[in-house]
Amino acid sequence: MPETMPPETTQADSMRSESMPQSARVRWMIVITIVTVLIDQLTKVYAVSVLKGQPPQSYLWDILRISYAENKGAFLGLFGNLSETMRWAILVTGNSALMVGLLLYLTLGKKVNAWTFFTFALVFAGGVGNLIDRVRINAVIDFLNLGIGPLRTGIFNVADMAITAGFFMLVWQVYRGDEEGQSDSTSEPVAPPAASNPTA
Fold it and tell me: Is pLDDT at 37 greater than 80 in this prediction?
């Protein structure tokens, strides 16, 4: 019988199956965090110096809107109506604990594949960018908005873009895992070898 050829392994499959060396994770974590936080904070400095107090600006047939906002809550203003003490406890103290736990897992975990690492490294870097705002001004600086007509996103920033990219990578990882699980469950069972006839 002809031999069954193994399925072709893509680069994405390799990223999700092979453990990433710890030294490489540490180096990439430093690079991703520094680059993301630097771009995020520089754009926020620009927003404060140029956009604050100005009317919203529209570009690309109103697909992109730029307007300054300070979000005291979390995503879409969640927790924004709480007292300042409660917001600090949840959004600064709580987020700081989560960031430390995530950092330890990504850099010290024994088996972390590349896909998982880059997914949560982006979430970590974006979280640090917004956490800096909360410590400095007890709010997050936002200034970007995308949409077509009435269908629009909330106002966001570069740190939010990193977090969203990590979220979509996580969704893709979960989807691929479910897809592979369904493929394994629907594959044809392998017939057991025929038993020898002792009377033959």
Answer: yes
Scan for tokens 């990882």, then name that residue.
Answer: 173
Tokens matching residue 12? 């994405």
Domains in the chain: how many in total? 1
Is residue 124 a part of any domain in this protein?
yes
| 49 in any annotated domain | yes
Strands 140-148 and 151-152: antiparallel
Where in the sequence is the domain holding 160, given as residue range(s)?
17-172
Phi, psi of 191 (to 5 degrees): -70, 135
pTM metric for this prediction = 0.79
Query: Residue 153 domain-assigned?
Result: yes
Cα distances from 5 to residues 2, 9, 17, 37, 185, in angstroms, run: 9, 12, 19, 46, 19
Query: Pick from 121, 124, 122, 123: which is nearest to 112 by CA?
Result: 121
User: Is pLDDT above 80 for 48?
Assistant: yes
Evaluate whether residue 154 is within a structural domain: yes
Work out the pLDDT band at 5, boundaries 50, 70, 90: very low
**Token output for 104:** 């330890």
Nearest residue to 31 via CA among 139, 91, 95, 106 = 106
Which residues have a catalytic role annotated?
Answer: 142, 160
Helix (H) or strand (E) holding 70: strand 64-71
Averaged pLDDT for residues 13-36: 88
